[in-house]
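Q: Structure tokens for this one, please.
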Amino acid sequence: MNHSTVAQIESRSIDYVPENERHARLGSQGPFWFLGNFHFFTISIGFVGPSMGLSAPWTTLAGALGIMFGTIFMAFHGSQGPQMGLPQMIQSRAQFGYRGVILALLATLFVFVGFNVVNVTLIMEGLKSVFGFDPKIVATMAVVTGALLSIYGHDLMHRVFSWTLMATLPLYVIVTLALMFGSNSAGPASEPALGFKGIAFLTQFAIAAGYNISYAPYVSDYSRYLPKHTCPKKLIATIFLGASLSGAWMIGLGAWLAERLHVSDALASLNQVGDTLFPGFGNVVVVVSVLGFLPIISLNTYSAMLTVLTGVDSIKRIQPTSRHRVMAIGAISIVLLACTLSIKGNAIALLHTFLLLLLYFLVPWTAVNLVDYFFVRKGRYAIPHFFTPRGIYGAWQMRGIAAYLIGFVAMVPFFYIADASGQQEIFVGYFARKLEGVDIAWLVGLVVAGVVYLLLALSLDLHAEEEVIRRIELDGFASKEHAP
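A: Here is the predicted structure, written as tokens:
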């Protein structure tokens, strides 16, 4: 790939990125993941606490703690990119097998497409509320823009992320200062006072944690172009600071918007705060916010494309080309648009439920993947063997599959799924009922899946794997683009 030409379509997808193509810089990761959370979707997460009776300060604290907790997992996954030179879900074949990884792919594809359904829904509702725009036209334009960016891929996406960060940062600083030093409330005087509620605090924590844990299947997709010698500690710290700082800021901003303005639409609230400074400025904030949010749609579409191609390759071996890339993105975009236009309901309620569900699906996977990488195989993998069912990782790795399923089943009695108000229960597990609605399912899933995999991995013949890896290194892997 000639990275000097910004508008050139990326040549790599699910294949290995050789050392001579690792042109990314460590410094780009911080701003990239800062922008990953620096938008009105994250602001909407801050509405959840106040909608359940939690005050803005408590919501801000719960959100910040949750974001930091979730970012730990995200950042450690990011360190795998330079070491492996592979998309995240290809690497998961070591834990689940060449074909068995389809189980994890289904969970992550749900995350990528689901996130974009909520993303586009928020844009549709916001622009209709502020400008009266036709939701169908807005949805179509948002989806098409995200598709085009993801087709061009890694380099252009990084460049666009930098541009949008420069455009949105000054505006969000102004909005934050205006909210801090403006009037205390612009809502009805009859609104009940908010305070501390334990269940609401824990729910806000879990949703914020799930939000950044949800980046776990993405993050090495965007760090795999870093040189292999990139310091893992510096990379982890860079990703952690970028993603957690912006996430905590935006959730806090959302909490104060919800408490002071009594609103449930992020774009409408930004418009309202902007107009308190001078007429028309709110419209500027909304337009720039939406434009700055479009790259996030491409982020999900790009990783969904990698997931789809990994799934296809796991069934029937393919040599990924630009044609495969465009076809996958086209199919994903059609499904996304159809889902977005068919789903009805309040976006915040949808957001609340979706974030909890994705946390349930992702937690067992992230536990298995991280335990394998850091404690079992300790970053030592036979890269060519990811691309064949006849390699050392096999077609099916029952250790990872069993750990994932056991972890997920262990979570079910702890599930507490309700709407955003907390008034209407959708599903409540036995222990969640005993705990009076406190949702610790994600914690149970992390511990159970991780411990089960660690125990099952004791039977792995790591010495035999190491011999294979050494032979590959002696032969010179850089010249080997195909599996054995």
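A few notes: Confidence is low (pLDDT under 50) at residues 1-6, 183-190, 478-484. The chain has one domain: 19-357.
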